Each structure stands twice: as structure tokens, then as C-alpha cells.
Amino acid sequence: MISPSLFVTELLNGLTLGVLYLLIAAGLSVIFGMTDIINFAHGALYMLGAYLGLSVIGVTGSFWLALLIAPILVGVVGAVMERLTLHHIYDRDPLYHIILTFGAMLMITEGVKYVWGPQPQQFSTPAILAGTATMEMSMLSISYPIYKLFLIAAGVGVALLVWGLFKFTDFGLIVRAGAQNPGTVRLLGIDVSNYFTLVFALGAALAGAAGVLAAPFLSVSPSMGDSILIVAFITVVVGGLGSFRGSVVAAILIGLVESLGNLLVPELTGFSVYLLMIAVLLVRPQGLLGEYKVRQASTKVSFDEVIPPVRVTSKTGLAAIAVLMLVPLGIGIVWSSYYVGLLSLIFVWALLALSLDIVMGYMGLLSFGHAAFWGVGAYVTVLTTVHYTDLFPVALLLAAVTCGVIAWGIGALSIRLTGVYFAMITLAFAELFHQIGVTWSEVTGGANGLIMPIPQMFGINLGDTVVFYYLTLAILVGTYALSVRILDSPFGRVVKAIRESERRTASLGYDTNKFKRRAFALSGTIGGIAGSLFAGYQWFVSPETLHWVVSGDAVIAMMLGGMGTLFGPMIGAAVFIGISEGLSAYIPGWRFLLGLFLVLIVMFAPRGIASLPRVISKSTGDARSRLFGDSDEIDIADYEQTAAKEGENE
Amino acid sequence: MAEKRNTECGSSPRRRDVLKATAAAGTTGLVGVTGCLTNEGSDGDTVTVGWLYPHTGPYSGLAEYQEQGAKLAIEQLNDSDDIDIEIEGLHEDTQADPQTARQIARRYVENENVDVVCGTISSAAGSAVQSYTEQRNVPFFPDIAADEITMDSCTRNTFRYETRASQTATAAASWAVENFGTDIWVHNADYLWGNSVASAWKSQAKSANGNVNIEGETTSELGATDFSTYISQMSDSDADWVVTGLNGGDAVQFLKQANSHGLKDEMTIVSPVNSFQFIRRAAPEASVGTYSAVRYFEGYDSPENEEFVDLYTDRWDQPPDNFAHVSWTHMFMYAHAVDSADSADPDDVIDELPSIDFTSPMGPTQFRDCDHQAVRPYNVGEIVEPDQHDWPSIDVMRTVSAEDTMLPCEETGCNF
Amino acid sequence: MTILETENLTKKYGNLVAVDDVELSVSAGEIRSIIGPNGAGKSTLFDLITGMQPPTDGRIRFDGTDITGMASHKIAQRGMSRSFQITDVFGGLTALENVQVAAQVDDSRRSSMLRDADGLSEVHGKAMDVLADIGLDDRPHQRASDFAYGDRRKLEIGLAVANDPKLLLLDEPTAGMGSEDTNSTMQMVQRLAADRDFTVLLIEHDLEIVMNVSDRITVLQDGGVIAEGPPEAIQDDETVQEAYLGGVFS
Ligand SMILES: Nc1ncnc2c1ncn2[C@@H]1O[C@H](COP(=O)(O)OP(=O)(O)OP(=O)(O)O)[C@@H](O)[C@H]1O
Ligand SMILES: [Mg+2]
Asked: Phi and psi at residue B187, in whole multiples of 5°?
């Protein structure tokens, strides 16, 4: 039986959360409305606000100064971030913008760890707001922390301020007009791009303010921005992208659903928000108050040049396979078996990066949810081998099929929403699976995960490092060859056409959603195979396999290597795992470097390592062969293939 | 952490810190005289220890002490004339991620040929490493308290000086029922250790008094930051006291928010771990007046502890916390076993370990043969206003002897 | 026979009526031009007919079936194809691949994953024919985005033709072209329509061309039809002259 007092208290709890979500989502929404960019660094800016607030208090001793200065500083950081990076690449596809902000997120997070340390910090409640306020009425007897009441009031105040700014000032007018149609505003003689910077600063400052406000009540830690970013994404999806009013309604709604849901249906703790999102997607995909129409520009991915995949049967392909086949012979002489194991881990990651490239590089769908396939693939494998059969191939097959079906389902729910929407929704779906992994402990083992028996196959011990190495190598080569074939098939042609222009493809008579679902299912299947092999490598699975970090790492690997080339992401995976194994032991903030790499790659070499030979040959001409002897092979192989293909056709 | 790491041997290929103290220094002369020694391959006298610390995530505040305790022990052992082995320590951050922990353990075993793996705090990372070390037959000393590790999923290679969650419950639950009342709220983080705490406290409380009534049970996610909704529910109930299966950052958050909601005025807060120095320091006002099982605290009154605290404070400029004493003790017990077996061969060491008698800062202890769980006494206390230090101190109110907290071997469910 | 018919077709954007109660009837084999000043609603009318935007009101019948509200790809499958005012070809694909994608849409193997796309010989043949028809068969393996503007415009038409339409909607196919290119492009359209036997609905600003190639002309203004008839009649229509032609022909 729920007492009225408890109900009211929980209502207040929900409002507190809602106000925080509102500040974050409003910033996200404001930035998106003007620039079409979904800022993945938004959670990190929120966190930065809390830390800067901590330092301002440390220096001045005043919470009020912190509440004023920290958001301004975060706004400056946002403006600098925009000026140095995004400002120069607005003409690029939005996919790059999102990846860039993801890189910025890694840099900010690691920067904060470096400056303030990885441990959570304590931020004390200002004395005047400490203690509880008590209210006694006939049926109600409530005592509630004064600070949280203040937080609700302050949050509402800030939101009103922003609303006023948009409604009543010239700045607001121009920004609103610019969001509608940047061209018209430009015609009026206003340099819109400066407004982009201002809007970015404003959004960042809002996140910073939320950070300071949250700090005395939530803990200040480098990871505090992660979960709130996902909630903010869900908020804008539920409220409707680009709609300030929508964000307000959705934020409060989500806060209430979280706290009241917790009280009324405790079984759904952690899920209620996702369920709300899925329900809204099904019933009103544009969001509760959203009018969002996918802008043509916000869905496109195009490349300056086509870098065809290296064929398995080409000289380079065969040579690479031959070299890899010989690697285990060096165990004990040149390297330890650990490194052979590490190579199989690289193969497994290469598969994941490859699967991502199929949807992102070839179809232009930005998936930030590939962790779902990686993790579900791993769980299905472990569960199958624990409960049903110790035959690893059966588990692998089951994992692949399950992930294919899940991908198809996610696609069916969200594929008609393209571009940035898809990025946010896939992220949220993957988090939903993560939540299941953590919560459904009777099946998944909860946070502790599950241990798997050493994998077997017809009497062969796959736990043996060398055997497992050859297994992963064979699957990788096979999958790669198959992917190359699929992308050259009639189906693959249509997939590429959708990347170039979905509208045009549809106008030719293709049900583009069907193709997108299928390609996503294909990608999910391969992702599931990767996850299954990962379980086979670890003999163990835990919810971390479903964490968004995996999705992010897959994006990084793909970008490092070169999107839209199939072989590039595999090289990227090797570099990524190499860096993380090599650097993580020496450099505590190695992820900062990863973030920096990612930003630099987006800025200067958007096709990653696969394009380096060309990038360098363009700038240094002949020096290419001297500098990049190795990568040059790829280059020559490409030319050979193009020539060969042309030969065939003529 | 970065700076501390950098003081280690810059030239060594991996982050090895074979730390040697000069013999000239006195008992507490370990300070600042660490030197470097590059040592390739292990002859019979050198053992390599692979440590795993969760420097990121909810346990990051605890991991610092864990690493300091381990390093102090290695320095002391390498300097000691009693124990004639050289210890080489590898120290890495698992980021509290079981996948990473397992991957590092794999590298430790397959590439660095470590003789023993130690550390981890979260039960998730711990059980990931436990199953791996079992498969590779490498001794493992986890610093985690979840029951299973030495119960249902015990393994022959696993030795634990750290408490078993149900042991602290045995020591504290009946006492809490006696002193605070029979209406109880149980809250825990939803993972192995948290669940162990919840079920152990419930069953211990019920067996202590037939009238015990569980007013309500709630669970939060590991790493949760907002406990308001649970606190509101507790506050609305008639519970006399609440026991929280929360640790690290979660425990700090809970205490702070409970304090701001005024929960302490309505009921007594009891915890298996809030006695940790890290928690007392992070939530000073909020923790005072709450009760906790005491696995260790810097003011504990014993000669061994005094010596340990002095050495530790000299070395690290702060007094030790629970995990410092656990990792320190693990390191010593392992070294004694290698020394007396005169071999670092896993099977020899594993056979030898249960016969090692050791007096830790908290008293005499020994690993049981049947489950490799350490036998040691436990305490319950109240967290009180600061005394010796800037942060709250502890009044020990009850000590339960080792025998009284140990589950009979038959009931552990452990078989290896 | 009437191939396309609309009944009080209307599209509103808020208060703006972009297409206002349009009744259109196009006979099979005809070349019909739609003219009108900028913003008259011509492109929007195309969007409605091809199903790319839902009408606010009204019905559309194509080839005997009511296609109102049908998804644009379904309408396309029934034999309606269009080109865009702003070039929208698959820039990253070669000219041949562009046309192949369009040409394979009717092939039963169009979503096969395991065949080689270049191995569908009928499709390949058909695509090469289209390239020959639009004069790009000398560079089939050049990336579309590497072509000059005029050639991209031709490819734009080639794409629309390659899936064998019954009705082809061309939205300013000569936009941005010089007069020489304009003429050759229009000749190409006429030739294609004759050879391949499809009906054409053409939006065009160059009135001289319109008068030359059209069988009939429909004039739009502010979303509504203000006149319709054969070129000569339109040329003489006073409303049109006043409202739109503004004395060009007088
Ligand atoms: N998506 C839209 N939202 C709001 N208004 C629109 C939209 N699309 C078109 N309009 C408006 O509808 C009217 C008709 O536009 P349309 O593009 O159909 O004209 P048009 O006759 O093709 O002009 P042009 O000769 O310049 O191509 C214009 O006023 C335009 O601004
Ligand atoms: Mg137009």
C-alpha cells in the first residue's frame, strides 16, 4: 500500500531527475536544431561542468560562483571545440560530425581523469541549502532535502531563461530561423556560422549548469556523463528532435516514469525508460511533440573516392593469409602463445568492425549499437554450451541467427528513421540489452556474467590457442570473402545506392526499408559471429560485452582503418587492439589519444588508414613509395583490380 | 595514479617494479629508497606476482589502498632476511571490467609467466579471473567478499583472506537485531556480493530472532547514483534499521543522500562495509552514527596493526584501509608458503598454503583446508566523530571469534 | 487512353497551399508540359504524383489504379519514374552501375546476395543500351560524381529511363544547361519517348522548347491550374499571357 506521502515524495524525486534531464536534453536539442549535429560529447560536458564547479568551489569557496562560472567555462570549452573542429567540416556528412563529437567525448573524459583523478569526488551541499524541509498536512507528512527543491526551482528557472532567450531576443529569432532554413538567414546578410558557435556554446553551458546542479546530489565521477547521455538521447527521441517543448515534456515524463515506475513496478527498474521509448517509436516515431522530418542532408554518406576491397584471391590477399597461417609456428621461438591468442582476438574484433562497415560504410546507417550483437552473440554462445551442447559450431550458428533476428527487429522498429536518429536509437537499444544482461541474473548471471566450458568441436579442443587461432582466421577470411561478394551482388549495388541517395533508390522502385533491414540483419549476423567467437576466446561472458563502449570501440576501429572499404576496418581493428594492449599498460590516459586520433582522422583523413597511401601520395608525390612501402601494396592491388574489372566488362 | 606509476622503473620493458630497499635502512626505512632491477626470466628464487586493481569505476577509491598494500608487502618481503625469495610485481588497472581483467590475467599467465595472480575487488572481475586461473592452475588471491568464491564456485587454486559476506553477517546481524529492533529493510546493489549480503543478513537476522520482519527489500544497480526513490520508500516504512549491501562509490552515495533526506533520524543504518576508511572519508558527516561490520580499520588495537599502520603511513603518507591490509596479508601468506615449500610450483604452493599460520594486523589467521577461506575474527562497531584523524573513527562494540563466524565445511557447498 | 488522372489534388504546408485542387488528365503517349512561375507548385505536384509526399486532399489514378497514399517505390514498380530538379544520381557509383541499379529493379534476382551484379547479362545489356542512348557509353566505368554537370543531368534522365517506365516525370531536365546542351537533351528525351514508348510529364522553364516538344501544356500558378491546352492555344490564352507569359510572345 503506497501512502500519499510516499507518492508525493517520489513525485518530487522524479521531478528532480526530470529537471536534470531537461537541462541536458534542451542543450542537445538546441544544438541539433541549428546544426543538425547530435553531440555525443554532451554527457562529457555535463561531467566537466561538475568538475569545474568543484574547482571553482575549491578556489572561491562559493557554490553560487561555481554555479555561475562553471557553465560559462563549459560554454567556452564547447565553443572552442566547435571552432577547432566542427566549424571546418559542416559541409561533410553528419556521420563524421557524430564520430567527431564521440572523439571529443573520449578526450574530455580522459582529460578530466588526468586533472582530477579517476576517483569519484565529493561535492558538499552549500550550507544554506543543507537539511530538509518539512511539510505536515492532514494526510501528508513530507520531509524533503532543501537542496533538491532548490534544484527543481533552479532547473525550471534556467529552462525558462533559455525559452525566453529563444522567444524574445534577436539571437533567438535568428537561431530559430537558421534552424528552419540556414540559406534564408544567410541571405539576410547574417553569418550563420558564428551563430553555430554560439549555439554550441549555449548548449554546452546548459550541460555545464546541469553538471553543477547535479553535483551535490549525485556523485561527481568521470563516468557520470555516460548514463545521462543515453537518457538525454531517449528524451529527445521521445520528445521529438529539435522541439524544445518536446524535450521539456519528455524529460519530466521520463523522470517521473523512472521514480514512480520504481515504486509501482519495481520489476521494471531500469527498463521503464526504454519501454517508454520503444512505445513512442511504435506509435509516434517523430516523437511526442516533434515535427522532425529527416533532412536530406542529414542522412547521407558519400565518399570522395571509391576504395574497393582487396580481394582474397588477389596477390595481397593471398600473401596476407599465407603470412598469418605461418604465425603460430613462431610460438616459443619468436613470440609467446599469448601473442597468437591476441591475434585471434584481433580477428574477432576485425569481424565486428567489418560488420559495422557493412551498415555504415556501405549503407550509410550510423549504428552506435553494435555492442548488442557482440554481447548477445557471446551470451547465446555461452548459454548454449552451458545448457545444451558442448558443440561450439552449434552455439556459433545459434548466436549468428539470434543476432540476425534481433538486428532485423531493431531495424524494423527504427530503420525508417535515418541518420542521427538511427545512431541514438541503436545506442539506446544496445543499452536495453545491457540492462537485460545486468538485471536478468537467473539467466545471464547478472553483473558477474557466466563462465563457459572450454569450447569443443568434434573432439577438437578449441581452447587450444593455436587451434582457436586457425578457427578465427578461417572464419574471418570466409566472412570477408563473402562480404566482398555480397557487396558486389545485385543486393550490394542497391545497398550502395541507398547510401548515395535513399530517395532516388526508392523512386526507382526499391523498397529501401526492406534492403536496409536486410543489410542490418546481415551486419547483425556477422556481429553475432564476432561476439560468439569472443566468448570462445574468453570462455566467459559478462554484461560489459553489451556496454556502449564496445559500440564506440567498433566505430573507432572502423574509422581508424577506413570506412567503406571492408578491409580497412579490419586493419583498424588490429591497430586498435594493438594500441589498447600496447598502450593501456603504459599510459593511463591512452583513451585520450584514441579520441584525439579519431578527431584527427575525421578532420584530415576521413577514410582512415586505408586512404593513407593516397593522402600521402597527394601531398608528397613520389615520396610515397619510400615512406609507405607496406601500405603501397594495397594501393597497387586496388589499381590492378579496377583494371581487371574494367577488362572483364569491356 | 599516473605519477605513482612513473616512479617505477622507467627502463624496464613492462611495468615491472622490482623494488629493493637498501639494507642499511632501519625497520621503517623503506621510504624513498626504492631502486630498479631488471630481471629477465625467473630463477628459482624469484616469483612473479600479477596484481589487478579496479582503478576506474565504483571501486576506484578502494583500489588505491589495495595497490599500496600490495606494493608495501612486496618491498618488505624483498627486504626481509626471513623470507629468502625475490618478488617481482606486475600492477595493472582492470578498469573494473571483467573482460579486461580476464585479458590481463591471460597476458600475465601466458606471456609474463606469473606464479600467482592477486587482486580485483568486484566479484564480477574476480570470478572472471578465478575461472581462468583455475583452468591454467595458477594460485589466485581475490580481494572480494562474495560468498560463492569460496563456497559453491570455490576452486582449488583460490585462497581468500578477505571476508566471506556471510561471515560479517554472522558477526553483525544478530547483534543489530538485539540492539536496533526486529523490523528490517534490506537494500543491496544487484550483483553477486550485494545479493550475498542481502541473503546472509536476512537469514542470520531471522535465525537470531523469530520475530524478525523484513519490512521491505529493494535493489539498485551497481554504480547507481540516485538512491532517492529507495530512501523515500525506507523512510515511509516502519523499519527499525536498514542494512545496505552497497560498497565503494555506491555506499558513499547512499550515505550522503540518506543523510540529506534525514533518514538517520528515522532508522539506524547498518552496513557490512561502511567502516572502510574510504567511505568514512568520502562521506564523513553522513557516516557518523551509522553502524558497520568491521573487517579492518586503521585504529584497531593490536601490535601487528600498529606496526603495519606505521610502515604504511611512512610509505604512502596516509593510513591503510581494509583493502591495503587484505592485499598486504595475501602477499605475505603467499610468500611464506613459497618459502616453506621451497618452490613456486603451483601445486606445491597450493598444498602448502593451508598450513601457513600468520598473524595479520587483525589477528591470527589460517586458510581452511576444505574451502581455502581464511579463519579470522570479526568485529562490529559504530562510526563516531573523528578522533586521531580528520575523518570519523570507529568504536568497536562487539568481537566475534573466528570459530563463531565460520560455516562448517559441510555447509559451504565447496568441493575441489 | 488516360494514363494519369488527378482529382482535386491538394497539398498544404501550414497556411501555404502549394498545390491547389489540381485536376489533371494525361493520355498515354502524350508529351505533357507543366509550366508556371517559380514556386507555382510544379515540383510539389510531382512529389504528390510519385508518392514522395502524401497529398492533403484529392486522388491520383495511374494506369487504371488508384495510387493515392501508395508508397513511392510501389508506384515506381507500377511503371512510373521520375528525374529530379536537383541532380540526384549515385555519385559514388560508376555510370554503368547507376543505370544497372535502375535496370535490375524488374529482375527477379534483384536482391540476390550471392550473384555477381555484373553477371546479370540482360541487365548489363539493358544498362549499356541506356548509356548508349544518353551518350555516355564511352565512359561506363567513370564515377558519376566525376562527370561534368551536363553529363550528370543526362545520367539523371538515364536512371529514370532505365527501369522501363510507362510514365516518365522530368523535373526541369535542362536546368542549368547552356542552350546547345538544352537542345540536344530535349531531342534525346523526344527520341527516348518515341523509341521506348512512354508518356512524358515535363516541367520546363524554356518556353520555346515547351512549345516545340509538347502535345499539351498545363499552366500552374499559386498551386492551381490556370490554363490547359495545346501549345498554340496556350500561346494565345490571355489569362496565361497576363498572369505568366507577361508579353513574351506579344
Ligand atoms: N517541404 C515544404 N515545406 C514547406 N513549404 C514547401 C515545401 N516544399 C515546397 N514548399 C513551398 O511550396 C511552394 C511550391 O514549391 P515547388 O517547389 O513545388 O515550386 P516549383 O513550382 O517547383 O518552383 P521552381 O520553379 O522554383 O522549381 C513554394 O512556395 C515552396 O516554398
Ligand atoms: Mg521545382
From this structure: -125, 140
E-assigned strands of B20-85? 46-53
Q: Which CATH superfamily is domain C2-88+164-249 in?
A: P-loop containing nucleotide triphosphate hydrolases (3.40.50.300)
CB burial of B206-244 (b: ≥16 within 10 Å; e: otherwise) equals: bebeeebebbbebbbbbbbbbbbbbbbbbbbbebbbbbb
Nearest C-alpha neighbor of B68 from the set B103, B30, B102: B30
Using alpha carbons, select from A519, A162, A224, A527 the residue that is nearest to residue A376.
A527
Residues recorded for chain A: 650
Q: Identify the three-state secondary structure at position B145.
A: coil
Whether A137 and A37 share a structural domain: yes
Query: What are the two backbone dihedrals, phi and then psi, of residue B90, each rounded to the nearest 5 degrees?
Result: -110, 135
Pick from C47, B96, B26, B54: nearest CA to A506: C47
CA of A295 to the centre of ligand 1 (A): 15
- Any domain includes A392: yes
Q: Which chains touch B (3 or more CB pairs under 8 A)?
A: A
Q: Quick check: do C and B touch, 3+ CB pairs under 8 A?
A: no
Which residues in A lie closer than 8 A to residue C106 (C-beta atoms)?
A: 509
| Nearest protein CA to atom 30 of ligand 1, as residue | C39
User: Which has the closest alpha carbon to A15: A185, A231, A257, A239?
Assistant: A257
**Do C10 and C48 touch, CB atoms closer than 8 A?**
no
Q: Mind listing the pLDDT tens digit of every residue in chain C (250 residues)?
A: 899 999 999 999 888 999 999 999 999 999 999 999 888 999 999 999 999 999 999 999 999 999 999 999 999 999 999 999 999 999 889 999 999 999 999 888 888 888 888 888 889 999 999 999 999 999 999 999 999 998 999 999 999 999 899 999 999 998 888 888 888 889 999 999 988 899 999 999 888 888 889 999 999 988 999 989 999 888 888 777 776 655 444 3
Residue written as cell 626471513?
Answer: B82
Residue A638, domain member (yes or no): no
Question: What is the β-pairing status of strands C216-221 and C31-35?
Answer: parallel
What pTM was estimated for this model as a whole?
Answer: 0.86
Tell me, rounded to whole angstroms, the distance of Cα C141 from its chain centroid: 25
Residue B388 in domain = yes
Distance of CA A457 to CAs A394, A472, A475, B283, Å?
9, 13, 14, 53
B109 found inside a domain: yes
A429: enclosing H helix or E strand: helix A419-439
The ligand with the least distance to the CA atom of C36 is: 1
Nearest CA in chain B to A263: B229
* Half-sphere exposure at residue A59, Cβ-oriented, CA atoms within 13 angstroms: 9
Q: How far is the CA of A179 from the centre of ligand 1 (A)?
A: 18
Question: ipTM, 2 decimals?
Answer: 0.93
Q: Which residues line ligand 1 (CB under 6 A)?
A: C 13, 16, 18, 36, 38-44, 85
Characterize the bridge pairing of strands B241-245 and B268-271: parallel
Task: Give kind and range of the element (H or E) at residue B335.
Answer: helix B322-341
Distance between CA atoms of residues B237 and B215, nearest Å: 7
